[in-house]
Amino acid sequence: MKGGGGGGSGASAYGFPAKRRWKGLVIGVLGLVFLSMLVPLVFLLGLYNGFHTTGYASDSQSSKPDVFQPNAIEPKKEVEGFIDESRETKEPTGLQPSKVEEKPPKVEEKPPKVDALPTHTHENGTKVDGKVQATHRMIAMDESGKPCEWKFGSYCIWREENREVIKDSMINKLKDQLFVARAYYPSIAKLPKQGKLTQELKQNIQELERVLSESTTDLDLPLQIEKKSLNMEAAIVKAKSFPLDCNNVDKKLRQIYDMTEDEASFHMKQSAFLFQLAVQTMPKSLHCLSMQLTVEYFRTDSTNLELSQAEKYADPTLYHYIIFSKNILASSVVINSTVSHAKESGNQVFHVLTDGQNYFAMKLWFLRNSYKDATVEVLNVDHVKLHDEENATFVLPQEFRISFRTLTHSRTEYMSMFSHLHYLLPEIFKNLDKVVVLEDDVVVQRDLSALWSLDMGGKVNGAAQSCHVRLGELKSFLGEHSYNQDDCTWMSGLNVIDLAKWRELDLSQIFRGLVSEKLSKQDKSTDAAALRASLLTFHGQVYALDNSWSVYGLGHDYKVNVQDIEKAATLHYNGYLKPWLELGIPKYKAHWKKFLDREDLFLSKCNINP
Ligand SMILES: *[C@@H]1O[C@H](CO)[C@@H](O)[C@H](O)[C@H]1NC(C)=O
Ligand SMILES: *[C@@H]1O[C@H](CO)[C@@H](O)[C@H](O)[C@H]1NC(C)=O
Ligand SMILES: *[C@@H]1O[C@H](CO)[C@@H](O)[C@H](O)[C@H]1NC(C)=O
């Protein structure tokens, strides 16, 4: 290491001829050589891995609003000390052959780069034509070598996407210097009349600690870092020039090292834990919420509470919204945001379709909370027995990522799509001819009543178009069916549905046919088959909603235009960074959070504070 190396030769140049001292140095150095061999081993064993992941866990709470920063995900304060000390791997005194670049072979086991943007945000929507393959991301592997699941919510895929070589040679140099300086500091401080050097060392140590606590890669480093490093080096050289008891320095080094190792192991465990927590925190507390509400529902015999609004549920003159959700908070936010912006709320009826597990909790929640004059009905999909062959298992609207690869380009697109439950809507809501289907990761920011008078030109499905992906690009996926290659794909999230026309065309039957056809052919997953079938079913039946109706990508794209967000009638957090997760993109969370009742008793009981 350069820093150490310079220091080493500097020390001998200063020249303390006394041989005994020299011997002591050699012993000390040998000890350090031993240490420096141990440390790479530690990282080989995977400690390094644990180290960086801490960042994710804590990111969102330090929520720095707005400012778009590539390193939006950064380590939280608590881990600073560890960062300072965890990777001081190289020869501290610098008498070793200094192979600066020889770092622990970490590139392979590198965790996702902490400050990296998801790669797709760098993309320039380049149109790739020709030999495009729609492959579901099967390339990414998890730790055990199994391919990542290509559905959302996969940390594995995320990790894979953010894999990037970290440039950190300067960081490592600084850490080395810090390591050495700390080892010398106590001995120097004990020397009489060295107040100035002690002060200098201390200052330098503090400065580097501060810098390293804020930086994990060279890119984060402040500009004048070279100078800081030189100052530190000079201080170290001076420190080394004093006749110190090498045993003390050595002892101190060992101390630091032991601490580092303990700390590393602690933090590794903790970070793995914290990551889990980050992914699951909200789901866990949501589970708590669901449980608490369910218990409460039966404790208070809430059946009495139920208002008789049933006549409204099926009144075709009202505005009916449909939400599939297992997430109480999310559906509450969708409804609250819709109602909050509605010019008139009394004519709004929300149908929340959920599964048996969340049914009673949802029921109680929507009994306890009112949303202006709107009506909310909670339905248990498990009890909906409609189609003979079909046992409706609850599947949320699904999200897909589609990777396109050519030799020179790769890009990933995100789609959200109806699940097979949507194809039950015409049967469940027999009385209704028109509905608006909202996903639970949507926030409404405008009055939606204009959707109800929208002329869709005889089409069944008014949806946001996504022209980043055209049907022609999915050829290998869609198969032999005839369709217009130039047609854009569409997204679920905000859909205006003409149920009458749907029944007339019997789209549900067409969908079922397409699903089973695919299943009998290749061994594609059922989810993929549903995506394909949905695209084909609605081919030619999609009315493209104006762009101002919805902005999507808030669950994966860090670069959504701020003005678009402000103007949009609805925001769609499609992607895995949902606003109710710790991992949610901080600058988008506020738009979601403001529709929660933070004072709610059950939220505080379950420690929910998104
Ligand atoms: C994308 O690429 C095109 C052509 O290469 C260029 O004109 C455009 O500015 C690029 N857009 C972005 C956002 O980089
Ligand atoms: C679905 O229904 C079929 C027949 O109606 C039944 O045999 C099967 O066990 C059901 N599957 C599940 C998972 O309930
Ligand atoms: C709905 O949102 C408002 C803020 O717009 C909030 O004050 C209120 O508590 C929310 N209601 C519920 C039931 O979450």
From TrEMBL:
Biased composition (Basic and acidic residues): 78-91, 99-113
EC number per UniProt: 2.4.1.-
Subcellular location: Golgi apparatus membrane
Major localization class: Golgi
Recorded topology in the membrane: Single-pass type II membrane protein
Gene Ontology cellular component list: Golgi membrane
Membrane-spanning residues: 25-48
Family: Belongs to the glycosyltransferase 8 family.
Name this polypeptide is given: Hexosyltransferase
